[in-house]
Description:
Layout: H1 6-25, H2 29-58
Helix pairs in contact: 1-2
Amino acid sequence: MLELSHLQVAILFALLASIVMGVVGRSSDRARVRYGLYCFGYFIGAVFVLGWLMRIGHG
């Protein structure tokens, strides 16, 4: 059975959501890749920022 940590699941979600957003969000292949990478970066950034905020909030 596959067991993933919370961080691994968040990264997997960011990857899959970024792929979908890149494919449906832009018309050219180059723009799709760039937008997908852009979204992935923001997803990962949000995961780490929210993780630190939760750590600070819980002490």
